[in-house]
Each structure stands twice: as C-alpha cells, then as structure tokens.
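so the lab meeting is tmrw and i was supposed to have these ready like two days ago... anyway. pasting both below. for each one the top line is the aa sequence and the line under it is the structure tokens. i havent really looked at them closely yet so no promises
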Amino acid sequence: MSVNQRHVLVTGGAGYVGSVVVPSLLQRGYRVRVFDKLVFGDQGLSDVMDRIELVQGDVTQFDDGVLDDIDKVIHLAAISNDPTADFAPEATHLVNVEGTRNVALACVRRKVPRFVFASSCSIYYSLNPYDGMLDEDSEISPTAPYSLSKKNSEILLRELASPDFCPTFLRKGTVFGVSPRMRYDLVVNVFARNAWDRGRLTVFGGGEMWRPLLDIQDAAEAYINAL
C-alpha cells in the first residue's frame, strides 16, 4: 500500500473522540490530517502535534483542497451536545447537516472513496421501553435537533453513495472514558468526576434509567476498522 493510500482526514480531530482516534491512527501507520475549528483549542493533540498536519477551519466553509492526497475521511466534526443543539437548532443543522454535505460533496468531487460518519443511536429515539436489540433495519424516529441532524445527514450521505463513494454510518452509544480533550457533560464521565469530588455516588431517576454506553477506546477502534 502506498503512502497516499494511508492518508486520512479526521474532521473534528481535536475534539473529545478525535483526540483518541488520531493517535490510534498514527500507531497503525496512517498519515493524518486534522481539520478542526479549534473551538476548544488544540491541546488534545499536543502529544502528537509533530506527527500530524493540522488545518484550522469550519465545515460550513469547507475547501476541496483540504482533501489533497486524502483517500479516507473520518467525519467527527459536529455540534455534539444536546443542550447546545436544543439552544441553537439552526446552527446545529448548519454545522451537522450542511457541514456534512460540504465535506461529502468535496469527497465525491475529489474521488475520495471511504467516508466514515459519526452518527448516533439517539436517532432510534422512543418514549416506549424496548428490551430487544436494535439494528440497521430498526425504526428511527428522532425529534430533538441533535438526533434529527444525524438522521438527515445519513439520508444525504445515502443519496450520494455510489461505487466510487462509500459512506459508513456508526450509530454510537453515549461515549465515556478518558481523552486528552476531556468532556464532563457525558453521563458516565460526570458521574465519575462527581464521585471523586464528593466522595459519594449520586444516582438519578430512581436507578431505572437505561442508556447504551461505549468506551472511547472501542469507539476509536470502530472508526479505524470501518476504514
């Protein structure tokens, strides 16, 4: 495999998940270019900065030149916090849906074949408890701005799919675990932080709430395997 065939673009690569995915890619011998708005800075990549190419930019104004020598994309860039998405649904649509469209269309024009998209299991949203296993054929019914943006992004990517452009959607559970760009708005992370700070475990909802959870290292592995 030539060097160019192992050149990956990671959008949102300086974020919570991206700053774990990027070092994992480097360990596997990939060349990595990160495209990130750097809203939270680049500290999450400080340990690997000398081994990557970092391009600061916004997916809502994506330039095709970012894809020079790229043949694989992991698209993580998004507004990925439900309260933020609820506060600004128009901005969520612009970044999450139109931003995804911009990157995907650039990939089609530049003949970048592999596109791995960070979707979410929240698109299965239902008020009714369900004990079975949900899969790719299960009904999806998102209503919140964040989950709706993931559904709409999946639709547009599916419409662009062709023998020359192969998008893969990973509908992840709620991610948890340590990252160089740590987040404490995620349920397990804040649960652990508060236990450390206060010396006690606080359980809400009568202990009956349920949600699918995914370790951040497993999430990174899934993205890379999907390439």
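ok protien two:
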Amino acid sequence: YNKIKNQEVEKDLTKEKESLKTKITESIKSISDNTIIRMLTYDDEDNATELYVLFKKTIGEDISEARQYTQDFILKNIMFGIFSNEVLVGFVIIKYSRKFQTDFQQDKVDTFYIQEMLIHPDYRKQKLGKSLLEYCILRCPKNLNYISLMTTPENIALQKIAKVDLLTFQEKKK
C-alpha cells in the first residue's frame, strides 16, 4: 500500500511541477533584450520579499508579515516580477476578480484588481511601470469589463500611466 501511495504522490508532484512550469513559461513577456516580466516562483522569494518590504515601508505599512504575504502571493500565482538583466526590479500583485463599485455602476461589479505595484527606486523613469501595467491589461480575463487600481495621491507617475492605459482598455471593451 505505501509503495503504491508513494508512487501516486510522486506522480501528482510531477504533474504539479509540469503545470507550474507551463504557467511560468506562458507568463513570460519579453520587453527588450534584457528585460522580461514573468510569474514569480519560490526561487524569487527572497528578492521579492526585499522589494515588498521596501514597498510597505514606502507607504508606511507594517512589514512584520512581508515574507508570509510574499509566499502567499507566489503560491497563488498572482505575483509577477519585472527583471532587468535577470535582477528583480519590480513587481505587481493582481487578483483576477474582486468586486468594486465603479463610476459607471451602482452595484459592485467584478473587476480585475491590480492590488500593488512597485518599481525599485533605482530603476524608475525607464517605463518599467508602464510595461507592468500593460502586462496586467493583457492578463485581464476577457469576461471582465473593469480594471481596478488604487494608488496614493502622491504617486503621480502611476496615475499618469494608468490614466492612458486604463482608458485605452475601456475603449477596447466598448
């Protein structure tokens, strides 16, 4: 019995690894010769946690559970990183469906939610945030008509990018 059970467990693990490998491969988008966006894996956990701590400190939030959150986002396949010369320089965390009230609907509707997005300060002003937002729009499920994104009033750069890209998304959906 144990031998058969172990073989079944091994088979399931192999299937799971192949499925994850396929998801990662399908998530890759090349931005330039040295810049790509892809789903994060446990191999990226330390670097992602460092960036997440930086992000949380920037917005004045608690960092005590940063690693736990990063692990959870990676496990759920909702954290995508942008890499320059194989170095993680930014990330985005998305939720494929979350209910929000929009300017156009009285009731809450399903939206594609861009939960958090960060580009390391040393890599800003290189249009990496724009590339990440465009990547998110590509990942938005076809059945959703709305994308939600929240940012601070001080984050003028992201507001400008979002205004252009999200308006373009809305026009395409009409």
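from a quick look at the 2nd one: The first strand starts at residue 29 and ends at 32. Residues 30 and 174 are 28 Å apart (CA to CA). will dig more after coffe
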